[in-house]
Amino acid sequence: MARILLNVVETPTDSCHMRYGFHDDEGFSLIDAAVATVVAMILVTAFGGMMGSTLRGSRTNAQAQEATAIGTERIEYALSLTWESIAMSGIDGDAPMLGGDQLLAADAGLEADESLVELPAGLIPPRVNETVDTTSYTIWQYVTDAGDGLRRVVVLVTWVEGGMSSSHNTSVLVSEPVTR
Predict the structure, then answer these.
(1) How many angstroms from the chain centroid is the CA of residue 106?
(2) Could you tell me if 118 and 51 are in contact, meaning their C-beta atoms sit under 8 angstroms apart?
(3) pTM of this structure
(4) Residue 115 — φ and ψ, nearest 5°?
């Protein structure tokens, strides 16, 4: 049998790698892995923060859309009633925007205060609570005498999310039917 001897020539670069523990065939060092882990954690944390912010914004928008839909449904209900029934069934003393038996112009965005219309035949309750997708909405409903044979139906939808109170206000004028 013949023996083959290999003569390995050490170059200065190889010598430097050998002296400081760098070996090309051993993969990543512990420091490489630690740096990669820290970079990955920073990226995941930043991405998670963006996703959290996006989800919160999405939930806030969904709640505002739901409040708008609730207000629209209440207005449509009022429009489906007879003139005699378009009145409040009572007055809630805890209701916002009220000053006695008046809807306050400054709070409701009106030009002047308007008197509430409360009748025994009234089918519009002053307050209704509704829960949609774990959010509790309080629906405040007002009917006022807007003058000239008109009644104003105002719906204020309020809810609380993350300690912050939000609201949506909508209204419509309804005219008394006139026979000709």
Answers:
(1) 26
(2) no
(3) 0.70
(4) -75, 140
Tokens read off for 104? 């306050």
3-state SS of the chain is CCCCCCCCCCCHHHHHHHHCCCCCCCCCCHHHHHHHHHHHHHHHHHHHHHHHHHHHHHHHHHHHHHHHHHHHHHHHHHHCCCHHHCCECCCCCCCCCEECCEECHHHHCCCCCEEECECCCCCECCEEEEEECCEEEEEEEEEEEEECCEEEEEEEEEEEECCEEEEEEEEEEEECCCCC
Say what the pLDDT of residue 178 is.
Answer: 78
8 Å CB contact between 152 and 173 = yes
For residue 153 the two structure tokens come to: 């139906």
Encode pLDDT of 75-132 as tens digits. Answer: 999 999 999 999 999 999 999 999 999 999 999 999 999 999 999 999 999 999 999 9
Closest CA to 137 of 64, 77, 44: 64
